[in-house]
Amino acid sequence: MEPAAAQTSDEVVLSVRDLQTWFDTPAGTVRAVDGLSFDIRARRTLGIVGESGSGKSVTSLSVMRLLDPPGRIAGGEILFRGQDLATLSEAEMCRLRGQALCLVFQDPMTALNPVYRVGRQVSEAILAHTDISARAARKRVIELFRMVGIPDPERRVDEFPHNLSGGMRQRVTIAMAMANRPDLLILDEPTTALDVTIQAQILDLVKGLTDTTVLLITHDIGVVQEMCDEVIVMYGGRVMEHGPVRAVTGAPRHPYTAGLLASIPSAAQRGQRLNAIAGSVPSPLAMPPGCPFAPRCPRAMPVCETRPAAVEVAPGHRVACWLEEGAQA
């Protein structure tokens, strides 16, 4: 399928600058995302990886402007083709969601209405943004189902979500997201609830969307290695490391990135204890004043009580760690 508008490979589709997303609670303010910046260029895939609570999913909800109170965008810019999404009205965002911007959630059962046939739900996404007949929309849905690898699409369009397997439901949500040829597709843990065989099939499907710009949210750095051009490693709402996938995963410069890579199981470790990062993610209401990873870091120093700045260690490769020469608060 052709994208909605021709995209050149050097065009910046999404530019996030110093994004701060906070949740005001009775116990205090949670800085779920604290100073995140990145660019995604056309037809490229950027991965955001980290443990639960690192701010990955909040980033995707911030871009889509789907935060529920008490969540709020406290600062920064979210520039989509030069337009700041953080300043748009809800009506203006509604015109973009489902058309130019699409989000695929982790659990397809929460994204699909259980009482409507899946074909109807995808048709509604098309009809909301396109002036075509219901018959033409149904034909388009069948084409989409065939594109995402759903067998016998002419029959599947009339199925209910509970009649489909988890993998098939996720394919339906991807078909729905691709229905209007979005400029940016956001995938939030799209394979977490699936078995490994179906995971591989869904990832192969996403890799085949070569004309689509993708933001992939995941806790699995192995998936990032396979799928992405660039990667952001997040922890405690902040960026620990950001750069080309080969550079970041091939020669990690931040101890947290190294810990994530060391925790990937391998056949060579059969019968041995799995590697794990000691400790746990601190409470979001009690983040350390400096580097948030310092309490768990095997190389922590007294200076880590002060927040380090991101240092460029190679072209396009930045690390926020006091171990890098030139880091300064």
UniProtKB/TrEMBL annotation:
Keywords: ATP-binding, Cell membrane, Membrane, Nucleotide-binding, Transport. GO terms for cellular component: plasma membrane. One of its GO terms (biological process) is transmembrane transport. It comes from the Bacteria. Its main location: membrane. One of its GO terms (molecular function) is ATP binding. It is a peripheral membrane protein. Pfam families: ABC_tran, oligo_HPY. It is found in: Cell inner membrane. Residues 14-261 form the ABC transporter domain. InterPro entries: AAA+_ATPase, ABC_Ni/Peptide_Import, ABC_transporter-like_ATP-bd, ABC_transporter-like_CS, Oligopep_ABC_C, P-loop_NTPase. PANTHER family: DIPEPTIDE TRANSPORT ATP-BINDING PROTEIN DPPD (PTHR43297:SF2), OLIGOPEPTIDE TRANSPORT ATP-BINDING PROTEIN APPD (PTHR43297). Belongs to the ABC transporter superfamily. This is ABC transporter ATP-binding protein. It comes from Szabonella alba.
